Amino acid sequence: MATRTILKNWNKFYEIFSHRLSGSHGRGITLTFLGAGVTTGIVLYNVSNSKVIAAQTTLNIKNFMAQPITSIDKLKQNRDDMKTKMELLILKIQADFCKQLESLEENSSHFKVDRWTRAEGGGGITCVLQDGTVFEKAGVNISVVSGFLPPGAIQQMKARGKQMDEGSLPFFAAGVSAVIHPRNPMVPTIHFNYRYFEIQNNDGSTQWWFGGGTDLTPYYLDENDAKHFHGTLKKACDKHNPSYYEKFKKWCDDYFYIYHRGERRGIGGIFFDDLDTPSQNEAYLFVKSCAEAVIPSYIPLIKKHKNDGYGYAERQWQLLRRGRYVEFNLIYDRGTKFGLYTPGARYESILMSLPLSAKWEYMHEPKPNSKEAKLTEVLKNPRDWLNST
């Protein structure tokens, strides 16, 4: 009789089923392995007492927010290519995160899903939830774009040490980016972005690298929240390299720095760029672990604080801090600049990170020894959240 089961590894699979299929009565057995959007059916059958293994791969896209940007046929044909693996990963990360956020909305607010294409190559899926009970604005965007890098983008990359040929070069970029602006000032804002980039040189060789990170921007400091957030990210880093967290935590503190204010945007997290070691697949698995750590690092904080009480003064402070968020994104953020430099840029998606409401007040200073001053002190002097007493 036919048997259907799911096995965790190939060795166990072969050991069990090679015996059952050794006779002339062997029948077809189908097993399904679910991964990041990929379903693989492995069919075993017997022909003249010789075991035959046929692998058929299909895409399971029903749980994504929209149809993939790359055609299904192309994804199937190139399932081992890093471009395919990254696109399927970010589609899954986007869908999982959006569904988690929607589940917290008391008025059944849903994301508006906007799938767009780019004449120069590729496109994206922008998901935005606005005016919810819990989230004033939440944006979760993926982009899968290709084409030719313009001189401005090439010069920006060379400025940070990339060795690139002259002229316009073919490129591919895929990434997921999210910024969540909660309504309650006691719930922090989160930003995360994970991306993969390829450039083809004039000699046909390919340069590739990964980048990204996750960081938290609270309006009122809860030290237990900070420890939970950083601890979750450290666990994701430690799976791959015990030196990553400390290195990428410092990089995050240094990157999200508002120079003209002399303060960080938030309490940090991790940030890295130009990651091309130890191998392409190992770098991908690290990025995957970091992206999958977003939900456990952040969703518990929303549940903890979404019903906290607050008043007019807390709301005004939240709006002032959002103004600083806007300043960093428009003046310093490298991703924003790259997006605006890229031909066919979709400005609605690039600027989705901006809040619905923000405020600028002339020469504002928090009162000494206030909760607002406590946060400001941490923004000026980053702390080691996991080893501090």
From TrEMBL:
**Gene3D superfamilies per UniProt:** Coproporphyrinogen III oxidase, aerobic
**Enzyme nomenclature, EC number:** 1.3.3.3
Query: What pathway does this protein act in?
Result: Porphyrin-containing compound metabolism; protoporphyrin-IX biosynthesis; protoporphyrinogen-IX from coproporphyrinogen-III (O2 route): step 1/1
Keyword annotations: Oxidoreductase, Porphyrin biosynthesis
What domain of life does the native source organism fall in? Eukaryota
InterPro entries attached here?
Coprogen_oxidase_aer, Coprogen_oxidase_aer_sf, Coprogen_oxidase_CS
Reply yes or no: does the keyword Cytoplasm apply.
no
Q: Tell me the Pfam families matching this sequence.
A: Coprogen_oxidas
User: In which family does this protein belong, per the annotation?
Assistant: Belongs to the aerobic coproporphyrinogen-III oxidase family.
The entry describes its oligomerization and partners as: Homodimer.
Name of the protein in its database record: coproporphyrinogen oxidase
Q: Which organism is it from?
A: Polistes dominula (European paper wasp)
